[in-house]
Specification:
There is one protein chain. The protein is of the alpha+beta class. The chain is built from two helices and seven strands. It has helices at 32-43, 128-138, and strands at residues 10-13, 20-21, 23-26, 54-55, 63-66, 75-94, 100-119. The strands form three sheets. A three-stranded antiparallel sheet has the order 3-7-6. The relative contact order is 0.23.
Length: 146
């Protein structure tokens, strides 16, 4: 959050609101990569995070730069993702006795980092990530989503 006169290009590191780890949990032994490949195909998305990838996004992926110009006020830069949680059933896997049984599970992943900047106190429509950042850092209720 910056306040005051023109600061020029400023780089921010994301402050974590919550931690999420992309994962596949199931009742049987399954290849997590194959489960995510199936979900990618069903959703028509190639950008789902692989199992094991964590949020907050570390390193350069978790940084962004912006220039608020000469506008004075309190600005918030935010970075978010769309989290996907899906339950699934998978054909048959061998259990401990060697018998084939269906496997059930849950996959958690995310896609498309969203980032942006807004000025506190301005009445504007914000996406979910920006609205949460506004609530946490500006202390006011933000307008409903886009």
């Amino acid at each position: 959050m910056t306040s005051g006169s023109h600061l020029g290009l400023t780089t921010y590191a994301a402050i974590p609101v919550r931690h999420v780890t992309a994962s596949v949990e199931s009742s049987g032994k399954l290849d997590a990569h194959a489960v995510l490949a199936s979900l990618r195909a069903k959703m028509g998305r190639s950008d789902l995070a692989e199992a094991g990838k964590t949020l907050p996004i570390p390193g350069k992926e978790g940084l962004f730069s912006t220039d608020p110009g000469n506008t004075k006020g309190d600005f918030v830069g935010y970075l978010g993702v769309h989290v996907v949680t899906a339950d699934f059933a998978y054909g048959c896997v061998s259990n401990k006795t060697g018998k084939s049984v269906p496997a059930y599970g849950t996959v958690t992943t995310w896609y498309r980092p969203i980032q942006g900047e807004f000025k506190c106190g301005i009445d504007m429509k914000l996406n979910d990530a920006a609205r949460e950042a506004h609530s946490l850092l500006c202390g006011e209720k933000a307008s409903q989503g886009e």
